[in-house]
Design a protein that fits this description.
18% helix, 34% strand, 9 helices, alpha+beta, five-stranded antiparallel sheet
């Protein structure tokens, strides 16, 4: 009589345990990455009142089964649906991460590692990637200082917002590319001032400058003169005397005659410089009109840039090959040149030359030895096909910016810049030239850059963390590692959406794996939700309630039977 009562009590306790599990599942229906649990029952034990006997072949008696009375039920197992993926919830938070597969994030409280599917992370005050619920650090692999690649070693805390990661160092420009079309009929190219191109460069401190390149045509078809007129800073102020900077010597042809050639519409007639459009004499050597800097600058194609024109250094040469270095102003204004200890006016030197050499030819032969940028180079194209031939004798020139010495220092803050012209062409383009310069080579290397400030953080599908900067650069900061277990359902729940390894789950090796190894991936801006199925939970709740009621009836009926037994004495 007592056995049924105890069976009923065991049933009540077991169904109460199942109800506790159901209640916990429903309570966590909206818990991030919660894995639902289920209860299975098993028989408690049996009392054997008569053991089984076998058949007797001699007497022909059949065997008898054992007589056993069950003593109730017990909780057989509480299972966790660890491999069942929860639904996705979009949060648009870049540090919320959902993982697929049977792997787990690795987090640490500073002394012990735990495992979780909860990917709701944030950046703490020290710049570490951490769990929002308890502040545990997210663990992963660091970047090797030498190779700048991920080093898969013992996991450690991933620090994203460290001081060294907040900025990206500047770099000086070392390469540039000129591309596009030169149209020989472009009025900018044929004008005395030439066509200008701006090239943006950076010094090694990250300051930006503009190199002003100039292209002029010559009387030779397919041949142009390339020069650098100035370098200005971001405020459009010239950086000063840059006469020491010149084109690299390799493959550069210096055409100094052309640098001081007369502009169209002017010519020398004897000792006089004449404007042919109206046959007006604007200067006569040793006579009248006398030296006029503005008029001469215009005649030689420098317009109102008198300062540049007068700053040129020229070599005055007599008929015997002797020469003297003078500025343009000294030659034309003063006219006194000393050669071999003899001082004469420029007119006297010209008169002393061979009679068949005219003063015009003499003055046309004045050579520049120090333009503001020192050198010019010849840019050539095939006049039949328009294909690029050379700049100098190669495909590129080198701007020797490193030769510019900064006042007050012993060096330069620039690097030499190699400028490639090989992708330019000379075609008819309706009188418009599209030729332009940009920093960086064909592979966008050597562009240079300013100091970069952190502008964003992104986490890739494989867990790699990259930071981007406002100077266009990016940097690999680390990789989120994940843990995999032989028996993930053997992990023990530790609260706070955490698990810890048990003897039946398998051990964590301290390193982890890359999530893509098992075919999984990470998705940012998304969280894994609870995998609780409310319809199944409510159904289980109904059956559990009925089971509890039925077991309570066993106790009630057993009590009634006991009462009848007691009443037999009355």
């Amino acid at each position: 009589m007592m056995r049924s009562m105890y069976s009923g009590v065991a049933g009540l306790k077991t169904h109460q345990t199942k109800m506790d599990v159901i209640g916990n599942n429903i309570a966590n229906v909206n818990t991030v990455a919660y894995k639902s649990q289920s209860v299975t029952f098993s028989e408690l034990m049996y009392q054997t009142t008569q053991a089984a006997s076998g058949a007797n072949a001699v007497t022909g008696t059949a065997g008898i089964n054992a007589r056993q009375i069950g003593l109730g039920v017990k909780t057989g197992a509480i299972n966790t649906a660890i491999s069942s993926q929860g639904a996705s919830q979009t949060t648009n938070n870049p540090f919320d991460i959902r993982i697929t597969g049977d792997t787990f994030f690795i987090v640490s409280n500073g002394s012990d590692n735990f495992f979780t599917r909860d990917g709701s992370f944030y950046i703490d005050g020290l710049g570490n990637l951490a769990m929002t619920s308890n502040g545990y650090n997210v663990m992963g692999w660091q970047v090797d200082d030498e190779t700048q690649e991920i080093k898969q070693d013992t996991v450690s805390a991933l620090r994203i917002m460290s001081p060294e990661n907040m900025t990206y160092p500047p770099e000086a420009t070392t390469a540039a590319t000129v591309s596009g079309i030169i149209d020989k009929n472009d009025t900018n190219v044929t004008a005395s001032s030439g066509k200008n191109m701006n090239l943006l460069i950076y010094d090694n401190l990250g300051y930006s400058y503009t190199v002003k390149l100039n292209i002029k045509n010559t009387s030779q078809e397919g041949e142009y003169i390339l020069s650098v007129s100035d370098i200005v800073d971001s405020n459009n102020d010239s950086i000063g005397d840059i006469s020491g900077m010149n084109f690299g010597a390799d493959g550069v042809t210096v055409n100094r005659d052309t640098a001081v050639r007369l502009a169209d519409g002017y010519s020398w007639v004897g000792k006089s410089l004449v404007r042919t459009s109206d046959n007006t004499t604007i200067y006569t050597v040793g006579g009248s009109p006398a030296y006029d800097a503005t008029a001469l600058a215009t005649a030689y194609g420098y317009g109102d840039d008198v300062e540049t024109f007068e700053s040129f250094t020229v070599n005055v040469t007599d008929g015997n090959g002797h020469s003297e270095s003078k500025t343009i102003e000294e030659v034309f204004a003063n006219g006194n040149v000393t050669l071999d200890g003899v001082t004469k006016t420029i007119a006297e030197w010209m008169n002393a030359q061979a009679t068949e050499e005219s003063p015009g030819a003499y003055l046309k032969a004045i050579n520049t030895s120090s333009l503001k940028m020192n050198d010019v180079a010849t840019l050539s194209y095939d006049p039949l096909t328009g294909a690029f031939t050379s700049v100098g004798s190669g495909n590129s020139i080198t701007l020797n910016l490193a030769d510019i010495i900064i006042p007050g220092t012993n060096g330069s803050k620039f690097e030499n810049v190699t400028v490639d012209f090989s992708s330019t062409t000379m075609y008819n383009n309706s009188g418009t030239s599209t030729i332009s310069a940009s920093n960086g080579d064909a592979n966008k290397l050597g562009t240079g850059r300013k100091l970069g400030s952190m502008s964003g953080v992104s986490i890739q599908n494989d867990g790699r963390i990259y930071v981007s900067y406002d100077n266009g650069m990016s940097r690999l900061l680390g990789q989120i590692a994940v843990a995999e277990f032989a028996n993930a359902s053997g992990l023990e729940k530790s609260g706070d959406n955490l698990y810890k390894a048990s003897q039946n789950s398998g051990d964590f090796d301290g390193i982890g794996i890359e999530i893509t190894t098992g075919g999984g991936y990470m998705t940012t801006g998304v969280l894994e939700m609870s995998n609780v199925d409310l319809s199944a939970e409510f159904t289980d709740m109904i059956t559990t309630q009925r089971g509890f009621q039925a077991n309570s009836r066993i106790i009630t009926v057993s009590d009634t039977l006991l009462e009848e037994l007691v009443n037999l004495k009355r």
